[in-house]
């Protein structure tokens, strides 16, 4: 691991000597009493064998999330507040304290080392890029303290780290801020929020609260610290079959919960699937419900979503206003594309010669995230639409030879006629899922339901 993969260090002074725990990208560091399993040993009867794990993962836009997950019996103190059995984001300058019987408690200061922009993006960017600042600012919105620590941003919203001051453990949450522009249908936004407020499922990003003022709408959401699924896939190029199956099983359970209530997501893609915490075989959370639709069994002319994940009927309705499409079968198509991407690191239809091979699609999309799409990408979009409409799935990748049951499931979800397309319930009953259902349920209980407990 190269030195430029160092994202943060936790610095302490112990018995007169300065010591540090180094946190590297995608290489967790454990702190605890057990020297055989921990990267840094912290002695004391109140310290667990593995007390906590420090992680750093990339964000969608090239930054890094540094987090701490507590596994202990006695918890840790973060900036004077007790944290127990949860995962929190560590900001530059945060203070962590471990339980100790010593006269001087074991106190660590988090120092961020990562520079979000290692290269100059704009002519006026500083050279070299600025180091992180501990100048954290907050504003009060209702019962929440919203910080200037940005977790993500898009065309219509920005997400900041916030703190629920009324929660017993002063819970960290994500604050999604939407500017209420002139002509914005605020009533419709709150209608969609009210529908999603009733959804409680381990694989759906939970809404805790909403607030608004004259300029903004604030949505307070469950905090996820492991980044998004697209970034997770690009770090590995593709996932193995076992991990893909576990993640897809969770996606299906979350979508089944939505579809049972006649709600469609309508913008399902790896970028909108979050990892609750860092690590392999993670719990995933379906997020970004800004385009979600109730009564999703009804046809609509309002096509939305990302072209690469839209079904044929959605592509046709984009260019022909008199055509309609249905939200729930669109989610099923999108899930099939996601499964294909997880297993191969490529796209079932986006195999334009521009990329050299279908696997280069992943790198192209990664490079274009957070910036305007390239002219070449715009130029070949019509070709992509035509391939989706034609429905000729690219199964030339040799990996499919060893994945006949997964291939059958992908094929059933990518059927051109949405009336014949597999439903989410059909996918849950597919042989690829059923053949290991007992193991999937056991892993789901241990890795998902346990972390989802209040």
From TrEMBL:
<comment type="similarity">
    <text>Belongs to the protein kinase superfamily. CAMK Ser/Thr protein kinase family. CHEK2 subfamily.</text>
</comment>
<keyword id="KW-0067">ATP-binding</keyword>
<dbReference type="GO" id="GO:0004674">
    <property type="term" value="F:protein serine/threonine kinase activity"/>
</dbReference>
<dbReference type="InterPro" id="IPR011009">
    <property type="entry name" value="Kinase-like_dom_sf"/>
</dbReference>
<keyword id="KW-0723">Serine/threonine-protein kinase</keyword>
<feature type="binding site">
    <location>
        <position position="182"/>
    </location>
    <ligand>
        <name>ATP</name>
    </ligand>
</feature>
<feature type="domain" description="Protein kinase">
    <location>
        <begin position="145"/>
        <end position="433"/>
    </location>
</feature>
<keyword id="KW-0418">Kinase</keyword>
<dbReference type="InterPro" id="IPR008271">
    <property type="entry name" value="Ser/Thr_kinase_AS"/>
</dbReference>
<dbReference type="GO" id="GO:0005524">
    <property type="term" value="F:ATP binding"/>
</dbReference>
<keyword id="KW-0547">Nucleotide-binding</keyword>
<dbReference type="InterPro" id="IPR000719">
    <property type="entry name" value="Prot_kinase_dom"/>
</dbReference>
<dbReference type="Pfam" id="PF00069">
    <property type="entry name" value="Pkinase"/>
</dbReference>
<feature type="domain" description="FHA">
    <location>
        <begin position="29"/>
        <end position="83"/>
    </location>
</feature>
<dbReference type="Pfam" id="PF00498">
    <property type="entry name" value="FHA"/>
</dbReference>
<dbReference type="InterPro" id="IPR000253">
    <property type="entry name" value="FHA_dom"/>
</dbReference>
<protein>
    <submittedName>
        <fullName>Kinase-like protein</fullName>
    </submittedName>
</protein>
<dbReference type="InterPro" id="IPR017441">
    <property type="entry name" value="Protein_kinase_ATP_BS"/>
</dbReference>
<dbReference type="InterPro" id="IPR008984">
    <property type="entry name" value="SMAD_FHA_dom_sf"/>
</dbReference>
<keyword id="KW-0808">Transferase</keyword>
């Amino acid at each position: 691991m190269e030195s430029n993969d160092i994202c943060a260090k936790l610095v302490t002074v112990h018995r007169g000597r300065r010591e540090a725990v180094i946190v590297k990208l995608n290489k967790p560091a454990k702190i605890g009493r057990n020297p055989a399993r921990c990267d840094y040993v912290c002695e004391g009867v109140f310290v667990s064998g593995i007390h906590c794990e420090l992680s750093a993962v990339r964000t969608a836009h090239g930054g890094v999330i540094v987090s701490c997950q507590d596994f202990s019996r006695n918890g840790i103190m973060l900036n004077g507040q007790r944290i127990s059995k949860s995962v929190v984001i560590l900001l530059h300058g945060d203070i962590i304290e471990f339980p100790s019987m010593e006269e001087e408690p074991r106190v660590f200061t988090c120092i961020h080392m990562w520079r979000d922009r290692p290269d100059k993006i704009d002519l006026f960017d500083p050279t070299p890029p600025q180091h992180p600042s501990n100048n954290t600012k907050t504003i009060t919105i209702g019962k929440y303290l919203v910080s200037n620590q940005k977790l993500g941003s898009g065309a219509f919203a920005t997400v900041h780290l916030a703190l629920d001051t009324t929660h017993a453990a002063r819970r960290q949450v994500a604050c999604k801020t939407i500017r209420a522009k002139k002509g914005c249908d605020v009533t419709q936004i709150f209608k969609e929020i009210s529908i999603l407020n009733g959804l409680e499922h381990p694989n759906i990003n939970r809404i805790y609260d909403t607030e608004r003022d004259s300029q903004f709408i604030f949505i307070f959401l469950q905090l996820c610290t492991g980044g998004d699924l697209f970034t997770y896939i690009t770090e590995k190029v593709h996932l193995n079959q076992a991990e893909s199956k576990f993640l897809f099983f969770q996606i299906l359970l979350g979508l089944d919960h939505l579809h049972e209530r006649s709600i469609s997501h309508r913008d399902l893609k790896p970028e909108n699937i979050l990892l609750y915490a860092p690590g392999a075989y993670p719990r995933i959370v379906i997020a970004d419900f800004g385009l979600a639709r109730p009564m999703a069994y009804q046809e609509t002319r309002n096509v939305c979503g990302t072209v690469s994940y839209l079904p044929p009927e959605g592509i046709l309705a984009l260019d022909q206003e008199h055509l309609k499409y249905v939200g729930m079968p669109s989610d099923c198509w999108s899930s099939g594309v996601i499964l294909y991407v997880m297993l191969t690191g490529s796209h079932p239809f986006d195999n334009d010669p521009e990329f050299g091979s279908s696997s280069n699609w992943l790198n192209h999309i990664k490079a274009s995230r957070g910036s305007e799409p390239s002219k070449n990408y715009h130029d070949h979009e019509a070709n992509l639409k035509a391939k989706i409409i034609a429905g000729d799935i690219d199964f030339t990748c040799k990996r499919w030879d060893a994945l006949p049951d997964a291939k059958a499931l992908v094929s059933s979800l990518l059927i051109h006629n949405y009336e014949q397309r597999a439903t989410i319930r059909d996918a849950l009953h597919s042989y690829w899922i059923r053949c290991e259902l007992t193991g999937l349920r056991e892993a789901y209980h241990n890795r998902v339901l346990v972390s989802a407990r209040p």
